[in-house]
Structures are given as structure tokens and as C-alpha cells.
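ok so I'm stuck.
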Amino acid sequence: MPEDAKRILDSVIQLWNTGDSEVAKKLYSDNARRYDPNQPEPGRGPQEISRYIAEVRTAYPDFHLEINESVQEGNLLVSHWTCTGTHRGKFLGMPPTGRGITIRGLTLGRIEDGKITEEYVYFDRLTMLEQLGLASNVGHRSAQ
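replied:
not stuck anymore, here's the structure
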């Protein structure tokens, strides 16, 4: 994997696993947009993206992100990841359930001048809600 992609993925892991907003400033361009199924509008710029990550880490204080695989082609970087955490605080209007989650997903990032300018996050939000006990899992089988 090219050194730039490795540095970016290492920074993504550091940002999500520590919540360090300084990492977000180095990782995302000032006009970056981040699309996430948990957000109705894209996060814009490192400050908004960092603020959202802080919300996640407050709700899931033991939040942990691991990159399983990644592929880079040109200025696109795709990563397959797994995140885990225990829901201990309010998140997106959902009161804490005390339940753990294990979510797998993909992120497609566009890189320019060594920073993420656009990021699309894909994961099965229904599986997350089922794991939290906030949605019925009748007739649904989570992907392993």
C-alpha cells in the first residue's frame, strides 16, 4: 500500500480510537464532506467531523475501530472496517442501552493533497439498532 494511504488509515484509526480533534485537522481538508447513515446532512470540515466523532465517543466510551482491509486506486481509498463499543450515553436521541455493538462497514474516501476531501460511509444501520434492542430483528439476519 502506498505510504500516503497507510498514513491516512493510521490517522483515521487514531482519530476514531482517541477522539483527538487535532488529528481531524491534519486528516480532513477544510471543505471536506463526510456522508454517514447516522447523519441526515454531511459533516463538513474537520471541526464538524471531529464534533460528530466526539458525540460517538461520548455515547460509546469504549469505541474501537479496526481496519480489516483497504484498497487504493488513484485518489480513491476504500477501507473495510469493524467497530465495537458499548452504548453508555445518549446518541442521536437514543437513551443509553448498555448494550454492545459490532458493526462492519465500508468507507470510500477521495484524497487530494494528502487529505480526505470527501468520504462516504456505508454500514447496515438496522443491524446497529437491532444490537441496541431498538429495532426488531424478525426476518433479518445480520451479515457476518
